[in-house]
Amino acid sequence: MTTKTWFITGAGSGLGYHLTSLLLERGDRVAATARRPGALDELTDRYGPQLWTTSLDVTDAPAVRRAVDGAWARFGRVDVVVSNAGVGLLGAAEEASDEQLAHQLAVNLVGPIQVARAVIPHLRAQGGGRIVQLSSSGGQVPDPGMSLYNATKFGVEGFYESLALELAPFGIETTLVEPGGSRTGFNRNLMLAPPIDAYRDTVVGQVRGLLTGADPEFLSRAIAGDPAKIARAIVDSTGVSPAPKRLVLGGGAYEQITAALRDRLAALEAQRELAYSTDADDARRS
Q1: Which of 151, 199, 223, 263 has a beta carbon 3.0–4.6 Å from 204's, enabling a disulfide?
Q2: What is d(CA 126, CA 79) in angstroms, rounded to the nearest whole number?
Q3: Active-site residue among 149, 160, 182, 199?
Q4: What are phi and psi for residue 134, nearest 5 degrees?
Q5: Angstrom distance (rounded) from CA 196 to CA 114
Q6: 93 contacts: CB under 8 Å, gap ≥ 6
Q7: Which residues pair with 248 in a beta bridge?
Q8: Is the Cβ–Cβ distance between 32 and 83 less than 8 Å?
Q9: Which position among 21, 83, 135, 147 bears the catalytic label?
């Protein structure tokens, strides 16, 4: 097995921690960033020079560039970048405060874009590499009560669809990872928008009650995704060439995304005649 070097954001907990642990155990080198890098101290003690850590809040663009530059300075090369840092915001669109909206966009959309912009010059200079961006089934499937979260995931997927085309000439490949719910601390760490009473008896209220009112142990069992298996699938995908454009992980994610895409395609096909009818009379058709 060829040893690789990785750069991971959001490595202090959840899936990022599982990834970091797995990679170190198999002998890879990891530049791991986290808002609280002390969470990685046990791994540092165990793996020593295999692991380089630094504090990083992905909403701080200059800090993103410093962390990326530091990782390349430490290891000389990074083969795989995993942009994993993220946060969820639970509530209807109008319930969220302006500050919560800005934070959701900064962490889940602008942050990943800035991570990509920071690593691309290094990947180009070394002749290639791979960027793995954590998205979600929510990048394809709408979730009531998570509309602002969905906006960031739909947005980051649109960014990566175009970015993949821009980077192909340089040997840089990208993969969007779309897991369903997994047994990490994601739900426990959700930002909660202040509730508006009008939504109490709607689907938004039902979702809020499920995610905040259910017994934590019951909720954990109801979520199918195993973060260790998800981490393994992500690592395995980086050995596949060409890189998968998307990696759907979880039975629920597969079923929901399949249904959403079929509905979207059916709606599109129903508008075919209308679409063509708005072309100019002298327009050329491919």
Answers
A1: 199
A2: 9
A3: 149
A4: -75, 115
A5: 34
A6: 147, 148
A7: 178
A8: no
A9: 135
6: left (phi over 0), alpha (psi -120 to 50) or beta: beta
User: What tokens does 36 get?
Assistant: 């609280």
Annotated active-site residue 153? The verdict is: yes
Active site residue 136: no
Question: In 3D, which of 126, 127, 148 has the Cα closest to residue 138?
Answer: 148
- Closest Cα to residue 133, out of 234, 250, 202, 4? 234
Say if CB 37 and CB 54 are below 8 A apart. Answer: yes
pTM of the model: 0.92
Tokens matching residue 69? 């530059």
Structure tokens at 213: 């009112």
Q: What is the C-alpha separation between 207 and 105, in angstroms, rounded?
A: 21
Separation between Cα atoms, residue 32 and residue 17, nearest integer Å: 9
Nearest to 99 by CA among 4, 193, 196: 193
Q: What confidence tens digit (pLDDT) does each residue in 196-254 have?
A: 999 999 999 998 888 886 666 655 666 667 889 999 999 999 999 999 999 999 999 99
pLDDT of residue 283: 84
Active site residue 245: no
Instruction: Determine the pLDDT at residue 225.
Output: 73
pLDDT in tens, 104-149: 999 999 999 999 999 999 999 999 999 999 999 999 999 999 999 9
DSSP string, 2-43: ---EEEESSTTSHHHHHHHHHHHHTT-EEEEEESSGGGGHHH
Specify the range with the lowest mean pLDDT, choosing from 43-57, 59-73, 169-183.
Answer: 169-183
Nearest to 236 by CA among 13, 5, 40, 22: 22
Q: Structural domains in the chain?
A: 5-252 (3.40.50.720)
Amino acid symbol at 2: T
